[in-house]
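Look over this one:
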Amino acid sequence: MSKTITTFDECFSKAFAEGLSDIKFFVRKGENLTVEELKAEAVAFQCAINNGQAVQVASVD
């Protein structure tokens, strides 16, 4: 069963309530995103994590 998150606040408010103190988003140089587009990407990525559609990598080297 997939979990659907509809808003940025809904997506991250629980994590902040549970102690998350910081979150960072990296945007490629020269890429022009609005705040709303960035939020939508962050929510989509978090949904993928929550639904088991992402895997943690050991290293990026």
